[in-house]
Structures are given as structure tokens and as C-alpha cells.
Amino acid sequence: MPKQENILIIGAGLCGSLLALRLGQRGFNVRVIEMRQDLRKVDISAGRSINLAFSNRGLKAIKLVGLESKVASLCIPMHGRMIHDKEGNTFLSNYSGRKNESINSISRELLTALLLDEAEALDTVTIEFDKRCAKVDFENKVGYFENAVSGDTFKVSADLIFGTDGAGSSLRKSYYQERKFLFSFSQNYLTHGYKELTIPPTKSGDFNAFKNALHIWPRGDFMIIALPNLDGSFTVTLFLSYETGEYNFNNLTTPEIVTEFFQKEFPDALDLMPNLVAEFFENPTAPLGTVKCFPWHYKGNSILLGDAAHAIVPFYGQGMNASFEDVVEFDAFLNVHQGDWGATFKAFETHRKQDTDAIADLAIDNFHEMKAHIANPLFQEKRKIEMALEAEFPDDYYSKYSLVTFKETIGYNEAMTVGRAQDKAILSLLSAHKIDASENLNELLKKVQKETSEILREDTIAKTLDY
Ligand SMILES: Cc1cc2nc3c(=O)[nH]c(=O)nc-3n(C[C@H](O)[C@H](O)[C@H](O)COP(=O)(O)OP(=O)(O)OC[C@H]3O[C@@H](n4cnc5c(N)ncnc54)[C@H](O)[C@@H]3O)c2cc1C
Predict the structure, then answer these.
(1) Is 80 exceeded by the pLDDT of residue 466?
(2) Which ligand 1 atom minimizes the distance to the CA of 194?
């Protein structure tokens, strides 16, 4: 029987707890160390994306660990975007023209708690809380920790160290600071931050707005969105610039200005938010950033996964899904290079990096699409065409959104390349009045496919000339 290594996982968030469960299921000895308190025992969710959009790529990982039915009970399906204009009119724009394709709203806390419970139930996994990793000596495979309760410091040796400690990863910092190898790192912030607020349930516990949608109030340079929770509430997120525009986080400093802002821009939402002012000043404003780095691993000793390797802005609803997909892809490489950890790490990151770079870029694109373009008539015409094509040709046509969100059998990079070409094709055909939503769908599909292949062919030629 081959030796089952002792694995240290730093960080028991979504990625770390899923990874612990999977590696534990494979029989490795896993010790997970998390800096925060155990969220199953104390409420530590305030201000930190309370619910998340969970979709096919995440589900693929949940299936891998056998938790599909347990996770299903935590999900609220969202069939599309419910768009709210300033006059309070709403319209639903479905995510897909295919039947039964939707994304889900899921509680970060409940999902993480489930993964922790399942991982901890294995003989092979132990999880410790309140212990912060200060740094990692990845050359010698030792993590240095501080106990948040006693203040004691201690070190942990392992055969392998996984950094799943999120966007501010201690392992990534150690890679950067130790300068033992060529480690590239970038961190880019948006000019906008976010703040979480609430639409509470009605007195009888019902939803105050349509339950099965992701609600959006797009206002050009800023927006609010709302996702449903199992208790009948919605978690509302305001995305707003820190310093530009008439209203921004830096000048929303009094209850009167906050109320005026919501009254003017989101009057129908304001009616549903009795605690707006109190929450606005109690809840933190947090920045939004993209982290890219490479390589993710050091020899056969350590590796970064999830946000620690590739934190992205939340506008495609894919950060957790991508982090979960990391675990699926990593698991597959374990089968290829059995026991050779250096080769496993290298093959995984080489394969995976282009996909996480792609979703990082797509997420920035979607920031602009959500806050501004979805209210644009040309964009709406494009969506109408895409919905019709998906409904009529469910196997032959996937919009960019569907390729990213629902076609988990292809990587993000392929989804981005094909999806962007299709977008370009439909928009240019529409602008040139060469197609319209009412024409024969067979003809429409042919024209869109032809234009898309030409764009893809030109892109390929352009790439070969790139030097
Ligand atoms: C506003 C917002 C909305 C989002 N919406 C979506 C969405 O709709 N869909 C989606 O798929 N994704 C979404 N995301 C992204 C998603 O939250 C992340 O991609 C996901 O949480 C990544 O999981 P992770 O485990 O890698 O990192 P994290 O969830 O950040 O977990 C890291 C864990 O490591 C711990 N830790 C950190 N440092 C240390 C240390 N030094 N020592 C020990 N432990 C440590 C942390 O306490 C935490 O528990 C959103 C993010 C934000 C900010």
C-alpha cells in the first residue's frame, strides 16, 4: 500500500473545506487550520457575501464528493435577471433559452458548514479553528501559526501544504517574500467597492419580491443586486465607486444623503428596505479586486488553490464555482501522476491557469455589462436572439453566458473565446441590420455561425502574426 501523505490545508473556507473532504475521501491524512472561529458555532457572516450564485461548475465538484442532494436542499433556483428600472418597472431576462437551466442562490455559511461537517466526519480529516497562519517555510514544508485565543505560536510540519486561504493568502505572501523562485504576482482593484444590505421577508415570512430571480437595478456607473435567502429575505449588494459620480461611498456620509440616493435611484428597493440606514452605516464597505499569480506551486511541496491563486471580481458569479472546479481538475490530475506531487502540481496549474485568467477577465467584462449594458436596447435585442436560438437549437447554440455558466464540460478559456466571437458577430450583424429577432431561426443561426467562424478565423490569424 503506498504511503498516504500528511497534508496541511491552510484555510477552511469554501475551497479548503471541499478540498479537505475530497482528499480525506481519497484516504490522505488531512489537517485543516482556519484562522476564524468555527462558523457552525458563531455568527461570523456579517458583511461578507452572505449568499452566492452557485452553478454547474460548482455542482460538478459537489457531485464529485457525493453531496448533490444535500446541497440541492440549500439552493433557491434563479431563472434569470429581474431588471428594475428607475420608474419601478421590471422585466425578467432569462439566463438561458434551454428549459431547466438556471443558477442558484446558496448561503455561504450553510454550504461551508455542510462541507466542514462532511469532511470532519471522515477519520482522515481534522479541522482546527482560531489559528492564523503567519507564514510558510515552503522549502522545509512548515507552517507557522498563531493561536487567536491563547496568543501562543506553533509550527506544523507536513508532507504537502495547500494554501486555500483566500485572496490575502499567507502561502502566496510567503512565495512572494521569500524570493526563492521566479514568482509573478499582480493585484488590481476596481474603482468600485461593495456593501451588503437586506430586504427582509414580509411579516408572514414570504419573499418581498419574485423569489426565483437575481434582481438587478442597473444605473450606468453603479447598481444594486439582490439574491434570495431561504428565510424569505434578500441579500442586497450595492456596487458603487469610492470617489467618482454624484453619489459615491466617500460622500454617502449621513442618513439623509443615503436615503436621498436610494430615493432617487432605487425607489422601489427603498420601499422594501426598512433597515437601510442602520445597515448602511453598520456594514463594512469592501474593495473588489483581481489577483493573478504564477506559478501556484513550489516543487512537490506546496500549492495554492481557489481565491489564493486567482481571486476575481464577483460579476460572473463564478469565484466559488471556479474554486470548486479547481478541486475537480486537481483531483483528475491526481489520477494521472499518482504519487509524483511535483508533476501533479505542475500539470494541474499549467492546464488550469488559462481558464482562471479567462474567468477573471470575463468577470470584469460582466461588471460593465451588468451595471450598464443590460438596460441597452441593442443588448436586449441580442439577448432575445440568443434566447430564441437556445430554445430552438438547445444542442447547437450556447450564448457566452451559457458557455461560461452551464457548459461545464469546456474550460473558461474556450467559453470566453467562442462567447466573445459570438457576441461580436451578433452585435455587428444587428448594427448592420443583417439580422433581426423575428426572422427564420434556421437562417438566423446560419448567419450567426458563419460570422462567428469568420471572427474566430481572423482571431487565429491575428494570433499567429502576434510577435
Ligand atoms: C461580494 C462577493 C460576492 C461574490 N459572489 C459570488 C457568487 O455569486 N458566486 C461565486 O461563485 N463566487 C462569488 N464570490 C467569490 C467567492 O466568495 C470566492 O471565490 C470564494 O469564497 C473562494 O473560496 P476560497 O475558499 O478560495 O476563499 P475564501 O472563501 O476567502 O476562504 C479562505 C479561508 O481561509 C481563511 N484564512 C485566510 N487567511 C488565513 C490565514 N492566514 N490562516 C488561516 N486561515 C486563513 C479565511 O478565514 C477563510 O475561511 C463572491 C465574492 C464576493 C466578495
Answers:
(1) no
(2) 1
pLDDT tens for each residue of 284-309? 999 999 999 999 999 999 999 999 99
User: For the domain that residue 206 is a member of, what is the CATH number?
Assistant: 3.30.9.40
- Whole-number pLDDT of residue 47: 46
- Is residue 97 domain-resident? no
Let me know whether 154 and 45 are in one domain: yes
> From residue 389, how far is each of 378, 417, 450 by CA, in Å?
17, 19, 14
Using a 6 Å cutoff on CB, does residue 52 contact ligand 1?
A: yes
Structural domain range at position 48? 6-75+107-187+289-367
Q: Is the pLDDT of residue 46 over 80?
A: no
Q: Indicate whether residue 82 lines ligand 1 (CB < 6 A).
A: no
Q: Are residues 319 and 245 in the same domain?
A: no
Listed as own residue / partner, the contacts of 429-438 with beta carbons closer than 8 Å and 24 or more positions apart are 430/378, 430/381, 430/382, 430/385, 431/378, 435/385, 436/381, 437/381, 437/384, 437/385, 437/388
